[in-house]
Structure formats: C-alpha cells, structure tokens
Amino acid sequence: MTRDTALVLTNLTLATMVAGNAPYGLVEDGAIVLEGGRILYAGPKGLLPDDFKGWEHEDCGGAVATPALIDCHTHLVYGGNRAKEFELRLNGASYAEIAKAGGGILSTVTATRAASEEALFEAALPRIHSFIDEGTGTIEIKSGYGLDLETELKMLRVARRLGLECPIDVVTTFLAAHAIPPEYKGNADGYIDWICTEILPAAHAEGLVDAVDAFCENIAFDAVQVSRVFEKAAALGIPVKLHAEQLSNLGGAALAAGFKALSADHLEYLDQAGVSAMAAAGTAAVILPGAFYTLRETKLPPLQELREAGVPIAIATDCNPGSSPLFSPLLAMNMACTLFRMTPEEALVGLTRNGALALGKLEDRGTLEAGKRADIALWDVESPGELAYRQGYNPLIRRFYGDDA
Ligand code: DI6
Ligand code: FE
C-alpha cells in the first residue's frame, strides 16, 4: 500500500543507530514521523514538533524500531544448488571426487548458464523473501556465476528485476572476475581482457552495474589482474569493492584501498598493513561469518586491529550456494557475536549503519534520522541487543519500506 499522508508512530523504543554517546543511538519513549517514503522526525515523543501532533497516530505497543536491515554482500541469484556436494563431503568424498562429480563453483556456473532469465528470477524469489521477512530493506546482489557476456548480464538483469518487483532495494555488483571460466582455463589474463573490453562495458551500458567486485585469491585472480578490472571500473566511474584475504593474504585489501574501494570483504587473513591502508582510505571491512562457519575456517579476522584503526565494520550473509548458504541476516548477527566476539551492538551497526556505508548509501539510509528513507523494522523485543541473541527465531512485527507502509 502506498502512503502519501503522514503517519506518526508512537510507543516505541528507537534504536536510531546514530553514532554518538547512547549505545544503539537509543531513544526511550520515541516517535517516528513518516511521509512520502521519508522520515520527517525520529526522536523523543516529548520533543515531537507541534506540526505533527494532529496527524494520524499509530501506537506500536512498545516495539523496538531499528533501521531496516542492509545486507551489503550476497550472491543471491544463481542456478541449481550445491546440496549434493554438501552431502558428498560429509560422507567423506575428497575435493577431487567432488570436482569429478561436477561440484564446486563451476557447477553453479553450469547451472546458471543453463537457466533461463525467468527461471533464475523464480528461483531467487523465495530467497529474497527470506531477507524481506527478517526486516531487510536493502540487499546487494552480485553476478559472478556466468563468467561469460550473456550470463553475467542475465544475472544482473534478474537482480534489477528483483528490486523492481519486490519490496526491497537491490544494489547490483558486477563480479565477472569471480573464477576463471572453463573456456579460459590457463589463460586468466585473456579472461580479464574480455571482462575489461566487452563484458563490463556492456553491463555498464545497460545500467546494470552499481559497483564492481573481484575475487583476489590464489584460486582466482592476482593483484595485477584485479587492478586491471578496477582501472576499467574507475574509467567508467563505477565504485569498487573486493573479496580479499579470505583464504590467504595477497594484499588485496591494500590494493582495494588504493582504489578508494567502498569495502574489502572476508578479511580472515588481513594483516596490519591492510588494516592501516583501509583506515586511511575510508574503506569499510565487511565480515562474513556464514562463510567462516561453512568452511570451518579457524583463522579469525583481525577485529581488534580494525576497531583500533577506526575502520567501519559491516556484517553480511554472503548468501551463496557454496561457501555460505545463509539466508538469515539475524543469524549472521548472532554468528558474528559467537564466532568473532563482536558485541550485539556492533552486529546491529554492521547490518544497518555500516551496511549502508559499505554500499555508499549512508546519507540516504542506515539510521533513523530525519531526511532518510522510511525503511524501518519494528521488532517484538525488549532491547535491540536481543536481535543478535537468538538463533532461528524471527521477532519482526512489521517492516516499513519507503513509500510502501
Ligand atoms: N568467496 C566465497 O566464499 C564465494 N565466492 C567468493 O569469492 C564462494 C562462492 C561459491 O562457492 O559458489
Ligand atoms: Fe562473496
């Protein structure tokens, strides 16, 4: 339902997530005024400007209000799934046997190439709804399971269409440099050439690319290859971000910082030089506990060093069929606390304010403040710290999404 008239929400505890003195930017006995998809006021009810007092009020029964969640790193659009591979592995199959049985990232590439645009869209719908159902208002979706011109564009079109047809804002990321396609086996440089001269310009020309990403890793692309993709992105005026230091340290985070990247993501193997470079460039750290958990990683990302350097830390699901089949941002928050010893406040900041920052959208969303999008989640909890506490439980009462109240 589209709402043009103003609405005053009262009887709320606000976790505004505005940085400052109060944890969670907490406001007891708060009120929020919405109109035309924007927040006109968010603060103490007692300070509600007189102008709004005669407007339609709604009693929210003491709920906690937060900004709608923002998941800044997913691979939500893909063909097939990898459940068989999961089962084979747990029955003792080796990596080589799984590859022989058609498993791994290239099996998702095969399935994604084979799927029609309509089939990819249909398969993605229940996935994206699991995010909406947990109060998510913005989600980033990457390409990267096509690894050819036609399929990379197909994935991005599906991502765009999800944003148009579902009540959630979709931010697209071009990730053709995710793996080396079979056609370019042994010729990663040739594939990077193709990305730079054809695939990226074509996707950009169709308006499908909000950001450019790459996988900087021994099993994927090295720093020189990533730089070439980033230089092309810079020439087209597109912001960049990077899968960096997930399995080893190739200096990816520092490279990304050199391009003033929005974020460097994963970061288990990040060193102090990478932390310092990110801090200097204002590049956000995106922490992905779902991949850490699924891969049974033991090396922790250097959270204390990131905190001390003042690097903003976001949290995301990394939702993908292989290393992180995680469709719950609430569970990602809980995992960040339990696995990485992040605080519940850091976890909620990571999926609101810093999620927005990592997408370059903090002026527009990510906190409850006048002027921002009216993307708001109401929760049946006593305090916002409770959101990171449970596993497999969804206390969402209601979600406001821009004009769609
Ligand atoms: N890092 C990951 O964990 C995923 N991609 C990436 O760059 C893996 C994606 C997959 O296995 O399908
Ligand atoms: Fe990822």
> What molecules are bound to this protein?
3-[(4S)-2,5-dioxoimidazolidin-4-yl]propanoic acid, fe (iii) ion
Main beta sheet: strand number and arrangement?
8 strands, parallel
Structure class: alpha/beta
Number of strands: 14
Describe the structure.
This protein is α/β, with parallel strands linked by helices. It is 36% helix and 21% strand. The protein has 14 helices and 14 strands. The strands form two sheets. Strands 5-6-7-8-9-10-11-12 form an eight-stranded parallel sheet. It has a six-stranded mixed sheet with strand order 3-2-1-4-13-14, with no helix packed on it. Helix 9 (272-281) links the parallel strand 10 (263-266) and strand 11 (284-287). Bound molecules: 3-[(4S)-2,5-dioxoimidazolidin-4-yl]propanoic acid and fe (iii) ion (FE). 3-[(4S)-2,5-dioxoimidazolidin-4-yl]propanoic acid (DI6) is lined by residues 105, 108, 178, 215, 243, 246, 291, 320-323.
Task: Describe the protein's topology.
Layout: E1 7-15, E2 26-35, E3 38-44, E4 57-67, E5 69-71, H1 83-90, H2 95-100, H3 105-114, H4 117-132, E6 136-142, H5 149-165, E7 169-177, H6 188-205, E8 211-216, H7 223-236, E9 241-244, H8 252-258, E10 263-266, H9 272-281, E11 284-287, H10 289-294, H11 303-309, E12 313-315, H12 329-340, H13 344-350, H14 353-358, E13 376-379, E14 396-400
Parallel strand pairs: 1-4, 5-6, 6-7, 7-8, 8-9, 9-10, 10-11, 11-12
Antiparallel strand pairs: 1-2, 2-3, 4-13, 13-14
Helix pairs in contact: 4-5, 5-6, 6-7, 8-9, 12-13
Bound molecules: 3-[(4S)-2,5-dioxoimidazolidin-4-yl]propanoic acid (DI6) and fe (iii) ion.
